[in-house]
Design a protein that fits this description.
Blueprint lengths: L2 H4 L2 E2 L20 H25 L3 E8 L5 H8 L8 E5 L5 H4 L5 H5 L7 E5 L8 H4 L20 H20 L2 E9 L2 H13 L9 H7 L2 H15 L6 E5 L3 H18 L9 H16 L1
Parallel strand pairs: 2-4, 2-5, 3-4, 5-6
Antiparallel strand pairs: 1-6
Helix pairs in contact: 2-11, 3-11
Family: Belongs to the polyphosphate kinase 2 (PPK2) family. Class I subfamily.
Keywords: Kinase, Transferase
InterPro entries: P-loop_NTPase (IPR027417), Polyphosphate_phosphotransfera (IPR016898), PPK2-rel_1 (IPR022300), PPK2-related (IPR022488)
Length: 292
């Protein structure tokens, strides 16, 4: 990983504070330089994905979390555009359905995990259960958890247990061959305002905006506290959080791409090597084809 991206990782070895991370950091890049670097990174990702798919030993789970208008959708579009769709799957998690509420909060996310050889992208994820639900604890009541019939009964111990469940979930995935990459797109409140206004002024982007976005924006400080706590509670050396400065979309896309690229390279992926018996069959198949 390039040096300018190393400072974006939170591994749980020290307390994380959003105040220490600039949302407009660009690592010395300009827009054109970043675009060129992203092209090269995407080419590398394509080759690495082919090896990942062929070897079928690892799965990769990429998690995107952010405030509205931080650029999750466009990051997925631009960074993943060079990948083979056959080896990639994207899930965008919305409000849980009634059926999903009938299970524990991790159930629907476990069902959406990528199998070995594939890359799974979760646009929002199991972290919504300690983010939006932390800001709106009344949503927890929809889970019909025994003993939680009132918001006042949702204690600090409840949230600690939920963080613990998430860490155990990710530890289990990591121990069984799934690489977990977690990205928080850190956008500023001013930049969000600018992007909201663009969505309102541009008729082709009106569909991206809803009145609920303004209601959630009013809870900005509460969300920042929830993100900071979640990141501190769930960052580990095996599954660290990557804090991506998101005011400049072109830099965010490059940072995300190169972090994924670096992680895939660290897996030392190789194409499968055939045994002697299979190699002999290839020789025979070639002989038959040439004799036709």
């Amino acid at each position: 990983m390039k040096n300018e991206f190393k400072g974006l990782i939170v591994q749980g070895d020290k307390k994380f504070s959003l105040k220490n991370h600039k949302t407009d950091f660009t690592g010395g890049y300009n827009k054109e330089k970043a675009k060129d670097a992203l092209v090269n990174s995407k080419i590398s990702l394509s080759h690495l994905q082919e090896k990942l798919y062929a070897s079928a030993k690892h799965a990769v789970l990429i998690i995107f979390q952010a405030m509205d208008a931080a650029g999750k959708d466009s990051a997925i579009e631009h960074v993943m555009s060079g990948l083979n769709p056959q080896g990639c799957q994207v899930y965008s998690f919305k409000t849980p359905t009634q059926k999903e509420y009938e299970h524990d909060f991790l159930w629907r996310h476990y069902k959406a995990l990528p199998e070995r050889g594939r890359i799974g992208i979760h646009n929002r994820s199991h972290y919504e259960n300690v983010l939006v639900c932390k800001v709106h604890p009344e949503y927890i009541l929809n889970e019909n958890i025994p003993g939680l019939s009132d918001v006042k009964k949702i204690s600090k111990n409840f949230w600690q247990q939920r963080y613990k469940s998430i860490k155990n979930f990710e530890e289990h995935l990591s121990a069984n061959g799934t690489v977990v990459l977690k990205f928080f797109l850190n956008v500023s409140r001013d930049e969000q305002k600018k992007r909201f206004l663009e969505r309102i002024d541009d008729p082709t982007k009106n569909w991206k905006f809803s009145s609920g976005d303004i209601e959630e924006r009013a809870l900005w400080d509460q969300y920042m506290n929830a993100y900071e706590r979640a990141i501190n509670e769930t960052s580990t050396p095996e599954s660290p959080w990557h804090i991506i400065p998101a005011d400049k979309k072109w830099f965010a896309r490059l940072a995300i791409s190169e972090i994924i690229e670096d992680k895939l390279k660290s897996l030392d992926l190789k194409f499968p090597v055939l045994g002697e018996a299979e190699d002999a069959k290839l020789g025979e198949a070639k002989r038959i084809l040439l004799s036709e």
